[in-house]
Amino acid sequence: GVAAGWLYLRHQKERQRRERRLHHLRSLSLGQGNFQLQDTSGAARSKADFRGRWVLLYFGFTHCPDVCPEELEKLSRAVRLLEADPALPPVQPLFITVDPERDDAAALARYLRDFHPRLVGLTGSAQQVREAAAQFRVYVSAGPRDDDGDYVVDHSVLTFLLDPDGIFRDCYSRSRTAEEVARSVRGHMDSYEPLAP
């Protein structure tokens, strides 16, 4: 009886901790709005299109020399690790460009084929991309152009986790490994309770 009571209290304490964290995440208002962008086939896509699925979302650009490819490879590996367990729901990998001037649909399609086969790339007008980045408080600043007109875009390096309700659940910095990301996503899946209608 004592052990059962202890387990019950432990479970209740963990549930309350998760509820406090989710309340805190919602209060940040990250990713609460919608976005209107286009995928690599030119089809209009919004955040609502990904409801019902877990999403790992990264903001970057195709001309990024090293950080973005590394982060997309890590994101792809985390998704593959999660896919290895057929009991888990699928995770949708998603990439939104922060450089719509150079990253049109064709450029995104060429770039993203080197990563996870289900990775969806989104672009749009400069305004649409700014609005999408702002919803996640992603810092974006294009640097000066060189003699060839080339430039680098400085941006926040974070991968965001959205649950099937479209709610921001967590974010992962460069220091997190694919294994750590996958483990965290699995933990969120295990504790997930859908929002009441």
Plain-language structure description:
The structure is a single chain. The chain has 197 residues and is an alpha+beta fold. The protein folds into two domains: 1-30; 32-191, Glutaredoxin (3-Layer(aba) Sandwich). Helices cover 39% and strands 20% of the residues. It has helices at 2-28, 67-83, 105-112, 126-135, 178-191, and strands at 36-39, 44-46, 54-60, 91-97, 120-123, 140-142, 153-155, 159-162, 168-172. α2 crosses α5 (178-191).
Quick rundown:
The protein has 197 residues and is α+β, with helices and mostly antiparallel strands. It has five helices and nine strands, in the order αβββαβαβαββββα. It has helices spanning 2-28, 67-83, 105-112, 126-135, 178-191; strands at 36-39, 44-46, 54-60, 91-97, 120-123, 140-142, 153-155, 159-162, 168-172.
Number of domains: 2
Q: Which regions contain 5 or more consecutive residues with pLDDT less than 50?
A: none
How would you spell out the order of helices and strands?
Answer: HEEEHEHEHEEEEH
Q: Tell me what the CATH architecture of the largest domain is.
A: 3-Layer(aba) Sandwich
What's the alpha carbon Rg, rounded to whole Å?
Answer: 18 Å
Protein name: SCO2 protein
Family: Belongs to the SCO1/2 family.
Disulfide bonds: 64-68
Membrane topology: Single-pass membrane protein
